[in-house]
Amino acid sequence: QAHLVESGGGSAITGGSLSLSCTSSELTFSGYSVAWFRQAPGKEREFVAASRWSGGSNMYLADSVKGRFTISRNNARNTILLQMNNLKPEDTAIYYCARGRPILSTVRMISSYTTWGQGTKVDVSS
């Protein structure tokens, strides 16, 4: 069921950076909205970032990561990138990428995405 594969997770210190990648050998990202969600132990899965399938290069970010994270696409490599800068301990979570076709009003909703990866763990220490 994990048609998408995340990579790039690991350990970082506060203020450091990590780059997460998401790709698929079976499915294309072209023409689809893509998103990153994260889930910390004991917490609900929450929206992090999304790039819509239409509307140019519009980027949607959770308030908690604005100014620190960016989402981008490498269409030639069928890859989604989440660049995470100025990391905080609160960013510690398993990060999941997802694909879907949400309308604008649902771009941040988990239910809008039908294809998911298994996740990659990010651990940020003080």
Could you name the key traits of this structure?
126 residues, mainly beta, 47% strand
Characterization of the model:
The strands form 2 sheets. Strands 2, 4, 5, 6, 9, 10 and 11 form a 7-stranded mixed sheet that branches. The protein has strands at 5-7, 10-13, 18-23, 33-39, 46-51, 59-61, 69-74, 79-84, 93-100, 113-116, 120-125. It starts with a strand and ends with a strand. The protein is mostly beta strands and 126 residues long. Helix content is 0%, strand content 47%. The model has no long low-confidence stretch (mean pLDDT 93).
H-E string:
EEEEEEEEEEE
Strand-residue fraction?
over 45%
Name the structural class: mainly beta
The value of Rg in angstroms is: 13 Å
Shape: globular
- Helix % is under 10%
Mean pLDDT reading: 93
Q: What count of helical segments does DSSP give? A: 0
**Stretches with pLDDT under 50, minimum 5 residues:** none
Q: Please tally the β strands and state the result.
A: 11
Major β-sheet profile? 7 strands, mixed
Task: Annotate the secondary structure layout.
Layout: E1 5-7, E2 10-13, E3 18-23, E4 33-39, E5 46-51, E6 59-61, E7 69-74, E8 79-84, E9 93-100, E10 113-116, E11 120-125
Task: Produce a short descriptive summary.
With 126 residues, the protein is mainly beta. It contains no helices and eleven strands.
